[in-house]
Write a structure and sequence with these properties.
Distance between the termini: 29 Å
Number of domains: 2
Largest sheet: 7 strands, mixed
Structural class: alpha/beta
Order of helices and strands: EHEHEHEHEHEHHEHHH
CATH superfamily of the largest domain: Spore Coat Polysaccharide Biosynthesis Protein SpsA, Chain A
Radius of gyration: 25 Å
CATH architecture of the largest domain: Alpha-Beta Complex
Length: 312
């Protein structure tokens, strides 16, 4: 199969018929073998009935329905598990992503050799309250990850099948799939300017809190990717440094007490600073020790991505 198209959705019953017809028209014109996987993320409207109706008339359309709303990352993760196409394309269900981009994205992965191609909505139809924070968020992510993409959160992306089978997306991590993929060893990440269409149906499902969650998730994924299998390297290092700093300060004060008889330890702010730093250092060291025990007993502790085998 050439293409799997994954569409996570929440309360998008109005747009689904038009979107499915548009996708079918594009892939048929380009003679692609394909499947469309629609993931209903606990919609409270008529979305699932619409999906069932579309699937009844188009055997390329498949559906997954969640019991409740879990979020876009969970929907994408389930879609990735089910995808069978050589190229996996994700798009939003709100008609702001154009299916006309599918052939070019497919070509960049198959002929261009990219692991991931991310859409870049260079011209956006969003208010400034959304575009300005988005630009800042993308700049920070570029700096932290080293991936030179302009629009990390664009829903329109294309992946080599091996990429989606090698990564796990959870929480709010859908914003950082290129980052997750890079740290999993997939480094050929490209970008394509895509059309951003104004919303035709419904309302946006994301509020201002997504920016706060986004930065928290970036900190999480940065830490886990680097220290997930060896947390002691982080907590032990900085815990030891904190403890040694407090210990040196304490030794200095004890020596000063013997040299200067009238030297009062408890009247000095540095005394309390030294104690606090030593306690923090011990707590960080213990946190690293406990995290190391958990990591050593995790079932995936020896799970590694293997690209090729020869004679094994």
């Amino acid at each position: 199969m050439d293409i799997s198209i994954i569409i996570p959705l929440y309360n998008e019953d109005e747009s689904l018929p038009e979107l499915s017809e548009w996708i079918a028209r594009v892939v048929t014109q380009n003679s692609f073998s394909y499947e469309v996987i629609m993931i209903d993320d606990g919609s409270t409207d008529n979305s699932w009935n619409v999906i069932e109706s579309i699937a009844a008339s188009n055997n390329h359309v498949k559906g997954i329905k969640f019991q409740r709303n879990y979020g876009k990352s969970a929907a994408l993760n389930e879609g990735f598990k089910a995808a069978k196409g050589d190229v996996v394309i994700t798009m939003d269900a709100d008609m702001q992503d154009s299916p006309d981009e599918i052939p070019a994205l497919y070509k960049m992965v198959v002929e261009g050799g990219y692991d991931i191609v991310s859409g870049w909505k260079q011209k956006r139809y969003d208010p400034l309250t959304k575009t300005i924070p988005t630009k800042f968020f993308n700049a920070v992510t570029r700096w932290r990850s080293g991936i030179q993409l302009h629009d990390f959160n664009c829903g329109l992306k294309a992946y080599r099948n091996k990429v989606v089978k090698s990564i796990e997306v959870y929480g709010e991590m859908h914003r950082y799939i290129p980052v997750i993929a890079k740290w999993a060893g997939f480094r050929k990440i490209g970008e394509k300017v895509v059309e951003h269409r104004s919303r035709k149906y419904g309302v946006t499902k994301f509020g201002w809190e997504r920016f706060i969650n986004g930065f928290l998730d970036l900190a999480t994924i940065s830490f886990v990717s680097k220290f997930g299998k060896s947390p002691m390297h982080f907590f032990g290092l900085y815990g030891t440094l904190c403890f040694m700093l407090g210990f040196i300060m304490s030794v200095y004060m004890v020596v000063a007490k013997f040299v200067y008889i009238d030297y009062s330890l408890t009247n000095k702010p540095v005394f309390y600073i030294a104690l606090t730093v030593m306690v923090i250092g011990m707590q960080m060291f213990l946190a690293g020790f406990i995290a190391e025990l958990l990591a050593r007993n995790a079932p995936e502790r020896n799970a590694y991505l293997i690209e090729k085998k020869l004679g094994v």
